[in-house]
Queue: 2 jobs
Job 1
Amino acid sequence: MITNFILRALDGKITLTVAILLVVAALVPALNLLTTPDSALHIPTYAMSLMGKYLCYALLALALDLVWGYCGILSLGHGAFFALGGYAMGMYLMRQIGSRGVYGNPELPDFMVFLNWKELPWFWYGFDWFPFAMLMVLVVPGLLAFVFGWFAFRSRVNGVYLSIITQAMTYALMLAFFRNDMGFGGNNGLTDFKDILGFPVQADGTRAVLFAMSAIMLSLCLLVASAITHSKFGKVLVGVRDAESRVRFLGFRVENIKLFTFVVSAMFAGIAGALFVPQVGIINPGEFAPANSIEVVVWTAVGGRGTLIGPIIGAILVNAGKSFFTGAFPEIWLFALGGLFIAVTLFLPKGIVGTIRQGWTSRKTLRAAADQEKGRGTALLPQAAE
Amino acid sequence: MRITSLFAAFFALLLVSLAAPSFAQQPVDPKPLIDQLAKANFSQAEDLIGKMAAAGDARVVPVLQAFTDGDLYVRKTDNLVFIGKTAGNGFELVEPLTGESAGQVAKNAVTKIKVNNSLRRAIRSAMGGLTLLSPDRSVRLQAADAVMRSPSSENLELIEAALAKETDAEVKARMEEARAVSVLSSDRSVEEKRDAIQTIKDLGGRNALGILNTISGSIDPALTADVEAAVAALQSEQQLWDMAQNIWYGLSLGSVLLLAAIGLAITFGVMGIINMAHGEMVMLGAYSTFVVQQVIRDSAPALFEWSLAIALPVAFLVTGAVGFLIERGVIRFLYGRPLETLLATWGVSLILQQAIRSIFGPTNQEVGNPSWMTGSFPLGGMTITWNRMWIILFSLSIFFALLFLMKKSAYGLNMRAVTQNRRMASSMGIRTPWVDALTFALGSGIAGIAGVALSQIDNVSPNLGQSYIIDSFMVVVFGGVGNLWGTLVGALSLGVLNKFLEPSVGAVLGKILVLVLIILFIQKRPRGLFALKGRAVEA
């Protein structure tokens, strides 16, 4: 049944994207590990990590597309779910440091020793066990999304209001995580990681695996998202986006539909964050900044919302542009990004993928119409302009 | 005629010249007392100080001051006492009473008169007593304060003597209080002390509380109940003042929120544009102030006191014009797609930030405060700073001006018509695009004016706007979109709430709690505090 569910999701474009992602997942690590540094095909480790970061961002954008593109919920707080997933992973990595920290305390992370804490806070228990940490990567963002969505959707908070309270949520979390006595490292966040599952985080091999995992998780999530949107449930979802009241009057429980999507999307974001942290080596409260979440919205908009593939392309393109501009012309980057936002909203409201798709369909319909006209003869056609 | 007036003038001069020495003329000449200090030990010195004080000659005040400062020296050759000031390698000696120079001496030609803390205390109260009789009103006031700070039974007689002569009402009241404080540490009768407690209680404030708390341990047991009652009364009064001060801080924060949010109440609240560039309009206003002040400093420094008044219209025009351009260039294509205005205006805000950063640099710019914005004044038990005071008044006046414009002017009528029913308004001959552009320009201009005020209390940097944008949205959403009164109530109540949470949970946690409360509140009332009713809700 589940295979059926997934198989139905595989239309041409999704299959192609998943295939490309899997090839990338195999090829890039191979080129990094198996070629010598002076070879023309060699991909340096930093470039691979950078691409791995883009893939995490792509997954985050995909998560946002699921709620925004298909359900009409513009979340300005998706960065919070991303960061929470990242923190869950970061906590696991912190516990793996053990006594190798600066203070050499076998039990407590450095920042707790520094704050003169005597024992591990209860919410850190279990994070030294990888499966538990991975469960938390899903559960913590999912739970937050569930509680938040439970209240918000039930009271029918909509549109702009919902966007703004999601923004308030991530802002409040940012302020909270900046506090030292929250027990998450305050301002500095969690960093100085050593091992993941016994492998050193900095090693090329580990990084290659992390990159491959990012690509694989992205394709998995893409498949799940595609399965959801291609199912009957997906049709209702689009219905909620386009005519919420009508769907409600037809007897659907709109708040449950929204809640489900929101929670799934938050979990995707959590996974993205968890893959992001070991590749960049740090997680700090800055990830909760409302500006970050808005940027995710932009990637999605640039790529094309409601297309699933668009956000992936958008996230990779914008971030590659960011890496290039901030290196080459740091002054210009914000102008370029700002200009991009404006240009996309004004001229490409459907995003890159959406616009291309529209172009395809309109060409197809035009051609079909033209064929039809030919068949019928020219009698009915109005005279060509003289 | 002329001769009589000349004669009168002469006579007056004579009187004055006679009067001056006659005032200083005292029954005991303090000079020998001062010279006896040369050979006195600490306890003898204390006696001498008492005698000097009793002599009541104000001329010994600088001598006593020099004594506490350790500047009193004995000349070894003749055992006379002088005030010494370091000059080169030696001392410049000054006659203690007349202030005439007695020439320079080497360091080893004089001996310093030693002073200890109990002497210093004696000197302080002696000086307090002496200056109570000074002809200068402000000196007498200071002296009364000095007595109040270090009450003693010796001072009691002095202050009572001074009270008998005092004519100035304010000085008299202050002296009465000083007397009451002294009475409590003297061996006067219980009744007198009871009166004194009452006087101190009426004085009020933290000082009175402190005085009563210090004496409560050593007081006559018969008076304990009175003291406790007075302390309790004062404490509850103090609590009230603390509350008032807290409300004031809250109103002050609320007025800042109001200033930041009021422009947004128009662009977001009335027009429905999620204007993420709003913070940057505030920032542009602050930078306009900076530029205006630079120009004034360079070309007309005399106008500096007026710089804010000049900056107001400049900031309004600059940000209004920028707002007009944004509306015409970007936003007008996005009406009916509110979530997309968010993206476009966010882009605008990035561009504006980077533009300012490129022009002025990323660092904070120095914006000066005119003198009428600095300092503070006491009001009962609280201190009120002028800049906060002006900002509260300013934000309220902006609010009411805007309200008047919206409700009473023809333009306001057009604007409301367009927001309520665009097509109908258009059919009635209102140029809706023009109204849109002007409204957005108005909202931006008001944000710019807010920037002028906020430049006085915040750092002027390219990131200035970022720190206000979220708060502004919270205020508008909390108050109710499309309702100016809601914005006012929302801003002030959030400000006060924040300041009341702050003392118990700390600033950051207080802010987090406020955010969480807003999120919960929106669940309860999804349209804010003052929701618009009727068709506008579904629009």
Note: Residues 14-26, 535-539 of chain B have pLDDT under 50 and may be disordered.
Job 2
Amino acid sequence: MQAIRLAGVLVVIAGFVLKKDTLATIVAAGLVTGLVSGMSAGEILNTLGSAFLSQRIATLFVLTLPAIGLCERFGLRDKATDFISRLKSATTGRVVLFYLVIRAFASAFSLRVGGHPQFVRPLVAPMALGAAQARFAPLSEDTEDKIKGLCAAADNYGNFFAQNCFMGASGTLLIVTTLTEQGFAVDPLHIAAASIPAAIAAVLCGAAYCLLFDRKLKAGAAQ
Amino acid sequence: MSIPDILAEIFYILIGGLFFLTGLAALRGERSRQRTGTALFWFILAFTFVAGPWLPAAVTGVCIVILAVLTALGMVRPCSPGSPPASETRRNADRFGFRVVLPAAALAVTAVVAATFLPFGASNAIGISALFALIFALVLFRVPAGEIPRAATHDGVRLIDNIGPVGILPQVLAALGALFTAAGVGEVISSAVSSVIPQDSRLAAVAVYCIGMALFTVIMGNGYAAFSVITAGIGIPFVIAQGGNPVVVGALGLTAGYCGTLVTPMAANFNIMPAALLEMRDKYGVIKTQAPVAAALLAIHIVLMYFLAF
């Protein structure tokens, strides 16, 4: 009866399919997994609590919000729109494409330039929206949502697929430790080099999508 | 405790303080009928950030369960005032001009500088740059001394309240991963999957490994957790055992998993939180944008691994 251990995975799937509250679904999945594999309530709560505390790094972005919120109050979005309105040649797709390339390069050199709260919300999204507004105003709510999605996605492409090109990236070191433990001695420099093709592929795919998006915007406005 | 650890604890205490203020704002808020539940959520979260490390871990465990119950019952809602009025931001924009981008730029630049030149680690560099950018903004915008405490926190609290409970999902997912590992969930999955791969087919093995990485990442919301499980279960016994270069298999294996990250609501900090942060109407809007690119990238990973690893 090994399969009973998968009960937690089922809880996660069921929670998302039934559109239950995400936080509650994950916590329930953790509790169920612990219970079916014979952990005591104390052990489950201990594991849950210590992992939560050791991963507080994941919530560190909260500290950047006061500065970002203040910049927004003092007109960051207004000025980004002003700026783009003057740049006649920058289209929405090209703004996002430009950001994607910068994000990928920064990520490959382990520079933390980018991020949804730090860059996409205060800078990239207002610029991309501004570019579309300058050409095709007024924008439908649906179009606005799609532009925001494009901006958020560009950050993810650049971030995910380029970060392992850096030797000291946590993903690179995870690959090294996992393979070494299993008896395959690999070193971080080679893993970083082997990560380059995927990074290039991600930038090219993202870039193609951005340029296609510009065409769709234009076609939509022409109708 | 080492200096970087002390510094990290100070940043977590500051985050706890912001969560506490978010709870206070909820109590005073007029927008929601769920003031008590919302305030309780943020107060308990603040407690875990500040006091958690000094108490038995099970206390934090209990707190997480209570947080989950509060959100499950729909008792946590945005309570603080909305965005600053357009008239105010326009007036400020005309007064300060393009100088308004300087604190945002300072945030990025000081993070890089602090990570590179200060001996406190990359994560502390984020905290250092956040404080620097805030002080810089307060000076640049000539906020009067008497208004500094409010100006320094008010808009941060507004954004925390907007993002809501999904802001802490990454942390809760890490806790779930720890329970999965303790329970041996990975071994069960890989032994089941390994029975369906045809013998001696390199392409099938590569495809099952890459797709397995992506699928497991979709379920877990975490490429790292998927990597250790699926590489031990499929990558090594089926791809590397047939002569695949471990370096290439490992490197492309992890990024194949990231194709799954692009399409899973479980990767909340990359897919759901940004949708909330950008005030998108569809909370799955980011995932929908990424889905076609993710599918193309997964196919490219299979092709790259097949040709580069052998």
Note: Chain A touches chain B through 117 residues (CB under 8 Å).
